[in-house]
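Hi P.,

Sorry for the delay on this. The queue was packed all week, but I finally got your sequence through. Input first:
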Amino acid sequence: MSPSGCYMRIGTSTQPMSTALIDELYAKRIHTTLRNIASPRQDLTFAQLKIYYQERGGVK
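Then the structure:
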């Protein structure tokens, strides 16, 4: 994406993208947010957080 529009590489040349192609590619993009990313560790607890705050006098 540039100020003058979107371009795609075709062989050794660069061609402007049509509005329809831009819209199609934008609609297909992956929405990668933290909420959508699965954690590899599902056995998480608040034990470490509790220790952290206990050491600082925040939790008894």
